[in-house]
DNA sequence: CTGGCCAATA
């Protein structure tokens, strides 16, 4: 940057031919934008000094200001200015850069306008622009448009395939991501480490351990360069698929570990409830002179919260502040959770009151869960009011409030809340559990019997329910929302999505294969109890990853020690 | 004169 500034000064103090002057300034803009120590404000100032910037200068400034750590719509504004002026004419570089900018700030509307610009200007046949469009729609989670763009590409290269795969991976469409990966190979396109990162992330998201293992073997067999990103993706995949030991092995073998690698490992240990290992990893990380960041502390604090380690949590909170990490909403969430789980609801409430940032619905919801657990009706009502003000259409909030009243035997108030749900016509997010069998991820939604083997699953479920009640279990029916008779409530519990997935697992696999389930919500208490019993009666290890953490059910007990 | 795809988050 220093040398660049010197050259800049020279340019300004000497009389150069105008074309040389413009060219040189454009180069400076390009360098500023590109270099790691780039200064985009400086680049912008230099850009404004160029008498008649050519397309290269415009491209440089558009690309440059989309690469800052605080993304903004600035590059899009530059593009708009360029289009308005009508000169110089934009080229394929311009369009690819501005699409990239739109994908970073998720500017769907602006991106669509750029898309129509692409069509008008005839750059729709540029492979770079095509890929940029696929990426843009993928990042904005408009997967149909992304796929449409992708399908329209006549000859898809590695980057185009990888872009589409990562689009699917991002929104958790694993089967589609993996299907495309196979299709890509059939088309004779050889995947590289970037492709592998995307498919492996898809496995992590869906808990597809077998496919993940297969991909890892593929990487080794085809000598794909296992760089920092790919190793991190593998650590994350093994951790999210329930193989924390394997995750550790991959992590230990990494020659270089950055903040993201350490954070992945720490978050992985945290969701497995290995709180001692989390502490150890954090001190090793500091010893290795890798700076923990906001994500690292989310892992550390959530580990403390989930294991009830209040004093450790407080200790890490102060060390986080000392290390200069600005606490974000997530960190406050962890602390509120930490205090609530330790039954310090009043303290959690004052903690929220004194937060320097305005609490979001998630914070209030954690508090409400805490109030429910502690049967603190007075605080609970206050908290629920705040929450419902902010999020009047989220069924989960009403369910929590209803459960709060149920916990305090306030039946009139409870039925009033349930009536509100009905009157407002709001629907709860349905529970959804998935299980990987033979390289395919099967999804089960609560009470949904559309699976092709529904009949067989129903039989397994009946068998389960008979044997479980034979073992003396009585369904804990107050977890059921709807106004229905006890018998109905019992069968509703029996149709919770994880039960369907477990039944399918029992049907399709044999011991000693572990049944691995991924669930989008938290497991209810009855399902938790029943799964423990199943693990004993059927002598099958069952691993459930819920929205928060892992539960390993072995021979009648769970790794979370019933604290979750 | 420049270029498209990738890792961790309550």
From TrEMBL:
InterPro entries found in the cross-reference section: DYW_dom, E2_motif, E_motif, PPR_At4g14850-like_plant, PPR_rpt, TPR-like_helical_dom_sf
Keyword Membrane set for record: no
One GO MF term: zinc ion binding
Entry superkingdom: Eukaryota
Keywords: Repeat
Biological process, per Gene Ontology: RNA modification
Pfam families: DYW_deaminase, E_motif, Eplus_motif, PPR, PPR_1, PPR_2
Presence of the UniProt keyword Ligase in the record: no
Coiled-coil annotated residue ranges, if any: none
Family annotation (Gene3D superfamilies): Tetratricopeptide repeat domain
Residue stretches of each PPR repeat: 54-89, 157-191, 258-292, 293-327
DYW domain mapped to chain residues: 472-564
Family to which this protein belongs: Belongs to the PPR family. PCMP-H subfamily.
PANTHER family associated with the record: PENTATRICOPEPTIDE REPEAT SUPERFAMILY PROTEIN (PTHR47926:SF461), PENTATRICOPEPTIDE REPEAT-CONTAINING PROTEIN (PTHR47926)
Protein name: DYW domain-containing protein
Taxonomic source organism: Nyssa sinensis
